[in-house]
Amino acid sequence: MFLNPLYVLHDRVDQLGHVHPRHGADVVQDLARGACLSTEDTVRYLAAAVAAGVVVQRGPSAYALRPAAVPDWSAAVDHLTASRERTTP
């Protein structure tokens, strides 16, 4: 499921890599809708992508893709694992 929001992000970026949601929606809501995820899961996956270094958060709801020569996928896994443990009772 982690790759789905990345595919949607790729579809929503301009030439500079800045994400522009369709239909003037919020970025997170647009990604959630496009990837068929809940808003909560989309926020988790975005944070994991930021931890991996493939997405940069430029503001509260402004994101950009960042070409990373070597993404830190273990940081993404660590973030997803930690956030999953916090939500599990």
List keywords for this structure.
two-stranded antiparallel sheet; 89 residues; 10% strand
Rg, Cα atoms, Å: 13 Å
Number of helices in the DSSP assignment: 4
Percent helix among the residues? 40-55%
Give the overall average pLDDT: 87
Q: Distance between termini?
A: 22 Å
Q: Please state the structural category.
A: mainly alpha
How much of the residues is beta strand, in percent? 5-15%
Give me the side-by-side strand order of the main sheet: 1-2
The gross shape turns out to be globular
Question: Could you please describe the fold and organization of this structure?
Answer:
22% of the residues are buried. The mean pLDDT is 87. The protein has helices at residues 3-12, 27-35, 39-52, 73-87; strands spanning 55-59, 62-65. It has 89 residues and is mainly alpha-helical. A two-stranded antiparallel ribbon has the order 1-2. The chain has four helices and two strands; from the N terminus they run H-H-H-E-E-H.
